[in-house]
Model the fold of this input.
Amino acid sequence: MKYIIEHMEPGFTPWVVLEYSTIVREVGKENLILTSLPEGTTEADIPQELKDLGIQWTTDECISIAESRQSLCLLDPAASQDLTPSDSEKFEYFVFGGILGDHPPRDRTGELRKKYGLEGRRLGELQMTTDTAVRSTQLIIQNQIKFEDITFIDYPEIRFNRYEATEMPFRYVMDKTGKPILPDGMIALIKKDTEQSLDDLL
Done:
């Protein structure tokens, strides 16, 4: 199975770099490709952390990767069908919108739906981060675990210390200790962003 992230953000924010790095480590560099990077993008534009992990990328669109559109599945919150283990027999490529989540969601995956007309599958009703969506798909397609058998945690509170915490408006896969699976370095980044937001208000 191959995973395609249709890059929809301008450049690479620290949040995006952490998520993409996590995805490369979990699925393997040979199984992930970033598509639709801006025309004129060069290797120098790719963050060093991602280059060190051997990430594959192209300025071509996702549909250029596969021999037929029928082998591509768009992970789409608005799809009428949920992703199931049997979809591993139908699709070879799984396409994700590489976008920072908005709260409330703005259906930016709809841009890909309208542009490519790919068959879609849903990962439940709640919004996920890109790395969580890929992780959930891997569990369903490669590990053959039904969506309803995956243990999730919704809108977890990330506590920095006794007095500081923030709620994340996403669904995450839960680890064996009952905590959300987050990219390495994400909690520190969230804390930094939270402190910056407070500084902007003052």
